[in-house]
Amino acid sequence: MGALLELQGLGKRYGAVDALHDVTLSVSAGTVHCVLGENGAGKSTLCNLVNGGVRATTGSMAVREEAYTPGSPADALRRGVAMVHQHFSLIPTMTVQQNLQLVRRTGLRERLDRIADEFGLTVDTGRRVADLPVGARQKVEIVKALVPDPDLVLLDEPTGVLDVAEIDALIGTCQAIAGSGRAVVLVTHKLGEVSRVADAATVLRHGTVVGGGRLSEVPVPRLLSLMLGRDAAEIDADTAGAVGLTPAPRARFVPSASPSVPETTLTARNVPPASPSDPGTTPTARNVPSASPSDPATTLTARNVPSVPPADPATTLTARNVRSGASDASGPTTGPALSVRGLAVHHTDGTAALDAADLDLRAGEITGIAGVEGNGQSELVRVLSGALRPSAGSVRLGDADITSATPAVRTRLGLGVVPEDRHHEAMVGELSVAENLFLGDLARFRRRGLVQRAAMDAAATRVIEEYAIRAAGPRAEMRSLSGGNQQKVVLARELAIDGLSVLVAAQPTRGLDVGAVASVLARLREAADRGVAVLVVSSEVGELLTVCDRILVSYRGRLLGPVDAADPTAADRVGSLMTGTAA
Amino acid sequence: MSRLLHPAAVAALAVAAALIVGLLLAGLAGADPLTTVSALVEGMLGTPYAIGESLNGVAVLMLVAAGFVIAYRAGLVNVGGEGQLCAGGIAATAIGTGLPAGTPAFVALPAVLVAAAAAGFAWAAVPAALRAWRGTSEIITTLLLNFVGLALVTLMVHEEGLLRQPVTSSETLPQSAPLVEGAHLPELGLSRSPATVGIVVAVVALVAVGILLRHTGTGLRLTALGHAPEAAARLGVPVARTRFLALGGAGAFAGVAGGMLVATAPYVLAEGFTSGYGFSGLVVGLLARGSMTALAAVAVLLGFLVSGGINLQLVAGVPATTVSIVESLIILFIAGSAAWAARRRAALRAPAPRPAATQAETVGAER
Fold it and tell me: A532 and A389, same structural domain?
């Protein structure tokens, strides 16, 4: 049985970054082969390599045992490799027919009839793409890929936008395509679907293959642990080091897995906070007790009794009073610091990004939201920050309804936000560090209508020192800083909000190096310890397990859970909720 | 190499190249280069009168450009200078011809200029509101309103019921009656020079805009809004209102410039009184790239070129439009070379390509 597609030691470098390295896999004709991995595992890069979108830096590919080096998607198509993109590539203002004619002009009718016969796929050619529901559009995409009669169909995250019935149909289609002697490569992070359709699977993690095989030999739970990288035996030391924080929960939750792991973990996590000004020691301290139960006190205060205002009740009270003073004079509140009820957000095509989501944040507690990207967590943050109006539901900050408040009002009421898209929403790259820090608080530095630069720079210098931000000075352009230092600036600014009662941080550690990650997480914990209700949205489960008290999982626009982060099975439960394999 | 890429050097080269093309065009029109150059220089600097005329033009350019820069800071492109000049001119004329003949200058002049500013603001307020609250492209709407403004001037000066001077014979020109004495912009008093205090007003306005943009919270907020609207919103900048006021402000500056045009000899509103200053002002604002010094320099250059162009036609028989062509070429060359230089600089700085969002994610996961 010859392999239809073979990858041999395939790698792709972007500058100094290995997006993909040493990927070897083989796809047999007549099978559905799943490529699994979390966001950023290198799945999309792999697709682009096979589809001819980018050229490999190392390694080789072969189609039907002949060397294959596609220079473009058209080239790939000539060799029988078609791709269905994650983001639709149809032209919405044209009809289905017109879209398909872009692929094939003559004999289209006959070809569509054959596709209908062979795979049971029929499309309404007369309708405008824009008028079709998402599921139907997806079908048109697949038909479009099948029109040139390819041997291999690559599907990049095809189920992200589909509902259950549509996924069933898609799975049927995949099986039909494979049944006709062709092969399907299904790139996904939704394990639940894999178990139903795949013949074989390959798991990518941080750009390289960490395992896989025929599904009859590798059970789904095994794939899950490979994908989330919790199994120390499968990951080499380099990768573990690069992950930085993921070994920590592993040490905690699978303490028997390998006795050497906790050692490594602690070292890795202790290095960055070594500088005395950097309070990165907090998460370390919080992890130590769980790894070695010598100091249960810390754990108890901070984690296991989350609803009690921890550490410093005085601070908590102050923060509370400021907030309620600003919103309503009805005295201190006892309810949640922030509560979300029945929140819904709809995309322009009518699909729901968020669907009846409920959320309560309590003072002094860190709540995490895990989830594969595109499950509504970004929209949730945008609603909370005031960048997006929900189509239904309400958001209350303490006593104030802020569902439709402007960002400025939210800030005044004590809501800090570290947005997900740092470069667009959190900072102005062309302005200086000082200006980015104080843009929302210029009144402090105003004298006779003019901004006193010297005073502003002095204040910024203090922040730069306090947060150990590496910048050429307060006047350095924000965009000249590294991602980690930019994030520290953003965090410093949000934490400095007067009467801060709730802090929402979306993907706060994305793109940061290990040291910066530890420092950012430490700041979040510190904020919670002084009575702020913290919400962390992240796709790094290990990180959430480290820093959060409880974790919710955002899945298809709903918030599932909560999972208690201290529970030994938390990682598994979060993982199965994320991938839709929960019972 | 890197010195050649300095923005000022790029601009100077672009101007030189455009001038050379202009000379070639003049040559095609049958004028030898020497005559062309001497006619141009004569028209620009040859007499106190020429210099005075040029300075008045420079003042108008500076005002339009200063307004343009304010809106541009906020990420808005005001292409509506012409229309706003028209609105300002019409309002100034309405007030300036309506006042009693003996109105003292300290009343009449401010009244005329304030009316002009208000009219310019109101004219720009339409596209500004559409942009701020409806997201309509201000480039399109301000541009189209230019034609409405120009047509409105034509209507005003042709209808006796509106602003046309009393028709006494078939020779009566379609223009307004002259503004009352008190509404005339005072001349600087240089001998045989028509230069008015307009240039002083313009320089003061430039300095004020410079301070506003560089040293006030408003300036910072405008800059933040222009570069990253989402981040600006997050930091409490009232996005819609700031956009509205920025574009409206640009209109007010152009409106004042229009008022100054009719408050300068011959003190009447007539068709074509804007002489394309609205577009030239946009060019000045674009080329200055945020620097007020550069703005003043470019305004002087273009202002004198335009005046010189008129002499070009009179003396050398070269169409004055040649100057317009040169002006357009300067924009094209500068825009083109600026883009090229930016790419070169980027290439010199970082040899590695930086594409793809997926890469950013990968970076995140890798580290």
Answer: yes
